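Protein modeling request. Please complete all fields; requests missing the sequence field cannot be processed.
Requester role: graduate student
Desired output: 3D structure, token encoding
Chains: 1
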Amino acid sequence: MASYRSLLPRRFRRTETTIPVVRLQGVIMAGASQFRPALNMATVAPLLEKAFADKRAPAVAIIINSPGGSPVQSRLIFRRIRDLAEEKEKKVYVFVEDLAASGGYMIAIAGDEIIADPSSIVGSIGVVSASFGFDEMIKKIGVDRRVYTAGKNKVTLDPFQPEKKADVDHLKELQLEVHKVFIDLVKERRGSKLADNDDLFSGLFWSGLKGQELGLVDSLGDLRTVLKDRYGDKTKLRLITMPRGLFGRRMAGAGFGDMSSRIAGAAATGLLDAVEERALWSRYGL
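Delivered output (286 residues):
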């Protein structure tokens, strides 16, 4: 019977619906390596292109699990998803696992529908900058730091010099501009779905359950159940993965590794980076 079906024109064949699935997991940052994967345009673009290239798929599903990171990379990924969705005329379902916060939520709003687990965390629509101050420490250990610049503001917010009010004011002004871009994007995508709540853009974060009440997500559920409900019990999910490189290892990029393996690998590139990455997840109790 199967052999006869293969002779029929494609439009007369009864085939199962296959939905490509892209997993975006990790901190969003410009740099990445084999030992320290990250979400950025370079690592995510090949996955998205491959997922949207399936002409028979009516939709693309994206799983997000990210505490955020670079606002630039977040917006680039968001924009690429929307561009491909419009070009290929496909619906985009975004599924939030543990976390879609800050830049992770910016990517999530690229979805036509956002579905979250009731216990997931969503939101944190804000901008944060963090650093350390070492000026007192180098005094105590007797280090004389010498810096020569052309341009009076070239050492703005230098961690080895005392903090200056003018530097902080400049940084806060920049943060407000980036925050406004984020807010405008959320309003553009979520529109009238958003609740009238003063804390919505304050940087607070909520459970998926509360996120639904606030209009940050559309519904609660999981990938397999939702897609089978929409496209039938025979719906198949096809996970899109990174291509394999030398010795069969997958190339660094989206959807790779748990936190313990990331921290272990990051030891080669800097313990401080690993600590900062871990701190991003810890903010949300993960």
